[in-house]
Structure to design on (508 residues):
């Protein structure tokens, strides 16, 4: 208790080196009940999704054009939230106590009587080396490993390069990108063998990462040629050569591909995992937030009077899911639709129906409202039709059907547009570090392109390939002035992932 407020332990949590799968279980637990998450640039922002939606998320990392928040300000921020009784997670890249200033934060808390716990993380040296196929120790090649940092006052004062040059094991240098030549020369100048194997691992454990291999004499020049950027590590030692045998990550079917996923927020994690399992990096850019309706009374009334309808029309897989989940929730089952005929706008919608063991009686030849209205007009003349759809969207279907049938329209779910994209996604398209964007509906395609600044849209057309779920989406994409590079032959998410595994990888 401080001033009558119950204080929770502040958690200094190691986020791991990049791959979100490398967070510890304790980290997951603490994030799941966090009220405030204070995070760094190096902590994968994907992990923020593990915190409750209402938790406050505070970015204290460096971003282009903006400096990192000073340490003192971060310390104060942690305290400010902790002393009002909030559960604070301080999420830090890698491990909090390895070159992460975690000790300073813990000391600051200690001095103010605020309890804390420290959750270790996979530090960059361990993550990057494992994914790069470089064992840091090896019975035959290295019995010791040293982590050193090439940055900061302390490094300048205390790093003894003469001793490091003689160190009988693997050296891992953190934060060394800008001073790579300096560090390498310091080792060489102090007698380290110029033929010692060396590697630079950039963005280790992430699909966008790279491994550059050479010997001590050449590694710095190679890194400059390859335009290596932070975060990157220098690894020096004979173990680097084991990579030729031990590399595994780069052999995954989608290794190296950086893929933007634009699906509705609720579907991102499972979509991302299916890509990551194949070695890709999945980047979230949800354009739509799907939510249940505020009020179910209309939906419930329609379900209860289902036998008064001749047709029910679904225009999206989301509509099917929300409607049928409500049917089940009310204690009915698919037999509610036993006496009614079912129309689905396209294969994805029909597939969603199939998950409830329902078969569409009508799927138009072209998967568009116009065709659906046209084909229904021929068979539903004078009939009672229920349109189960989102709270908003085109009114064409209702307008056309109104002329020939008795139509009731209900909103079975709500679509809320994202108002913006994560600036990091825009930044990455601009700098050319995105390979694919997957678009799974026309609305998503439209929205995604709308949310991009004009200059980014141009960059995207030049540098990013587009994969779509179906011909309808492809058509929308083309209407928007973009080319489609890949279209799923099965109109499902798995269909797209499959198609991607068959595309040859870009040369980098
Ligand atoms: N606490 C962190 C280190 C922070 S210092 C940890 O335990 O990993 C930041 C430095 O870590 C970077 O400059 C870089 O040298 C290294 N680093 C962090 N993430 C990395 C990654 N994914 N790949 C390569 N190096 C990384």
């Amino acid at each position: 208790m401080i001033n009558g407020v119950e204080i929770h332990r502040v958690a200094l949590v190691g986020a791991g080196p990049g791959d979100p799968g490398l967070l510890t279980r304790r980290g997951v637990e603490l994030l799941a009940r966090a009220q405030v998450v204070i995070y760094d640039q190096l902590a994968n922002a994907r992990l923020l999704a593990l915190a409750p939606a209402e938790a406050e998320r505070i970015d204290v990392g460096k971003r282009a054009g903006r400096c990192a928040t000073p340490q003192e300000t971060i310390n104060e921020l942690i305290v400010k939230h902790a002393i009002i009784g909030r559960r604070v997670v301080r999420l830090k890249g890698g491990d909090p106590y390895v070159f992460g200033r975690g000790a300073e934060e813990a000391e600051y808390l200690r001095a103010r009587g605020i309890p804390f716990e420290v959750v270790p993380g996979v530090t960059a040296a361990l993550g990057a080396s494992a994914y790069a196929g470089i064992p840091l120790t090896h019975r035959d090649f290295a019995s010791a490993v040293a982590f050193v940092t090439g940055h900061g006052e302390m490094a300048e004062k205390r790093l003894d390069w003469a001793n490091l040059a003689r160190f009988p094991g693997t050296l891992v240098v953190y934060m060394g990108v800008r001073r790579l030549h300096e560090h390498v020369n310091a080792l060489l100048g102090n007698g380290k063998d110029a033929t010692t194997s060396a590697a630079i691992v950039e963005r280790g454990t992430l699909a966008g990462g790279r491994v550059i291999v050479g010997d001590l004499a050449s590694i710095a020049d190679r890194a400059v040629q390859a335009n290596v950027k932070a975060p990157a590590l220098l690894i020096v030692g004979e173990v680097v050569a084991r990579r030729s045998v031990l590399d595994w990550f780069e052999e995954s079917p989608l290794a190296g591909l950086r893929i933007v996923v634009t699906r509705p927020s609720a579907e991102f994690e499972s979509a991302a995992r299916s890509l990551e399992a194949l070695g890709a990096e999945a980047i979230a850019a949800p354009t739509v937030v799907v939510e249940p309706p505020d009020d179910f009374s209309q939906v419930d009334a329609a379900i209860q009077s289902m036998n008064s309808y001749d047709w029910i029309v679904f225009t999206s897989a989301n509509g099917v899911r929300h409607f049928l989940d409500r049917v089940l929730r009310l204690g009915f089952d698919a037999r509610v639709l036993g006496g009614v005929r079912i129309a689905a706008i396209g294969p994805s919608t029909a597939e969603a129906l199939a998950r409830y063991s329902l078969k569409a009686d009508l799927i138009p030849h072209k998967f568009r409202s116009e065709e659906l209205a046209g084909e229904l007009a021929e068979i539903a003349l004078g009939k009672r039709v229920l349109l189960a759809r989102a709270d908003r969207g085109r009114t064409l279907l209702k307008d056309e059907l109104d002329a020939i049938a008795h139509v009731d329209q209900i909103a079975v779910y709500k679509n809320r547009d994202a108002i913006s994209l994560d600036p990091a996604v825009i930044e990455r398209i601009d700098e050319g570090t995105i390979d694919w964007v997957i678009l799974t509906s026309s609305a998503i395609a439209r929205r995604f392109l709308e949310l991009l600044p004009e200059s980014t849209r141009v960059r995207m057309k030049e540098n990013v390939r587009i994969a779509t779920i179906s011909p309808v989406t492809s058509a929308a994409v083309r209407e928007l002035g973009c080319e489609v590079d890949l279209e799923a032959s099965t109109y499902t998410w798995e269909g797209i992932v499959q198609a991607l595994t068959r595309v040859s990888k870009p040369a980098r």
Summary: The chain is about 35% helix and 20% strand. The radius of gyration is 28 Å. The pocket of S-adenosyl-L-homocysteine is lined by residues 17-18, 42, 92-95, 98-100, 123-124, 128, 174-175, 201, 203-205, 230-233 (CB under 6 Å).
